[in-house]
Amino acid sequence: MNISSTERAINILLVEDNPGDARLTIEALRDAKVRNELNVVQDGVEAMSLLRREGRYADAPRPDLILLDLNLPRMDGRQVLAEIKADENLRRIPVAVLTTSQAEKDILTSYNLHANCYITKPVDLDEFVRVVRGIENFWLSIVKLPPE
What residue stretches are annotated with the Response regulatory domain (predicted)? Predict the structure, then answer.
């Protein structure tokens, strides 16, 4: 499904501290059929500042979807997820956990904190790109995202 030129782009917040994974995600989304705008932050503190539109993020757009790594510096993804879902103004934003962890504890914790899905990053490059495109297809083409 393509977004017509009269519809706004889907805004995605990628919270990822690994520059290689961020670059791959950006490249996979750049080739997307759905028009999107991507903001990338490298840690949980920055993510919360952007979401709350604080400081240099005062004019940041509200994301329609958050792709969240769990293992982040300064404030990890679990803490970010907990803060997002506890905040009346942010809790409706879908959060897709995208992480290397396959630990059952991390999966359970993420869902207990109301993550909308949990995806383990593949180590294979082609598979990683396929997964990101699958996320894009599902969340940006199939799912009806909540309004701001």
Answer: 11-136
Domain 10-142 adopts which CATH fold? Rossmann fold (3.40.50)
pLDDT of residue 24: 87
Q: Are 37 and 9 in contact (CB under 8 A)?
A: yes
Domain boundaries, the chain: 10-142
SS3 129: helix
Distance of CA 135 to the CA centre of its chain: 10
Q: What is the pTM of this model?
A: 0.90
> Integer distance in angstroms from the first to the last C-alpha of the chain?
21
Give the bridge partners for 10, in sequence order.
Answer: 36
In this structure, are residues 67 and 147 in contact, taking their beta carbons and an 8 Å threshold?
A: no
For residue range 23-61, list pLDDT tens digits in order. Answer: 988 888 887 666 788 999 999 999 999 999 999 999 999
Q: Which two tokens stand for residue 129?
A: 């790109």
Q: How far apart are CA 84 and CA 25, in angstroms?
A: 22
